[in-house]
Please model this.
Amino acid sequence: MGLTTSPTFPLQDMRAVSATTTLETATLTAKNTSTPVAHSHLSNTANTASDDSLHAAISNVQTARVNVVIANSNSVGAHSPAMQWGVTRQLPQTLQERSDALEEIRARHNATCPLCLAARQQDIVFGQGSAHAELVFVGDAPGDNEAAVGTPFQGDSGAKLDEMIKAMGLSREQVCLTYVVKCPLQEQHPATQEQLDQCASFLVEQLLVIRPKVILPLGGLAAKHLLRSGEGISLLRGKWGVWTPPHGCQVPTIPVMPTFHPAYLLRNYTLETRAFMWSDLKLAMTKLSVT
Model:
């Protein structure tokens, strides 16, 4: 099927090609290991044993402190000092409370994010959809089409995503659409890693407030960021991963099902690519209660 200005991807077509795909699922397991501690025997005649025990105790304390610093850096993020919801503020519960919290995050992001402050305010695309969504789609960053209208996923790829959402039995109003970075990335002025991390910390707050049942990253950059993985999207897609909230938020891990970006689908509109994407969407649907 050739690429057209507004390609179609009907439900029947998606279901038909899905029969050719073998689904793969992966289960993440975590193994806890313990390190035995050697106990020294005290001697009434030897002071060196006591000295060795003291040095060992100091070393253990220093190691524990380093591990705490690393854990905090990995969970909350070294570049998210302004993060509030779920960290310094209690998470909202009702739909209205969640909507209000998302608006507060949007306003604070637009006023404080260094990366997006360097861009034009009208180019910022924060997100769209339900504050109580069971499914959150996450892209890497908005493009010119999105910046022009201020809403995520526009143009041909946005139309294709709408078809995919509809085929799942949902609508834009029932899901949430957002990005890791909220403004277009400029090739001539590449962002630093610190700037990217600062902007991405607001996505963490969005996810903590919404607390969806499934996160569906679209494309490699979003998938790598959410899963903290170095693998490409071809290896990540179709396999369950988890997004781990910051330590202390009292929010359980959220399942993640990576898939291709709709723009990639349009560039590679083959039976195989369509079957892969539809199988990914069907896996995500198994954890939703609204379909």
Remarks:
- The chain has eleven helices and six strands.
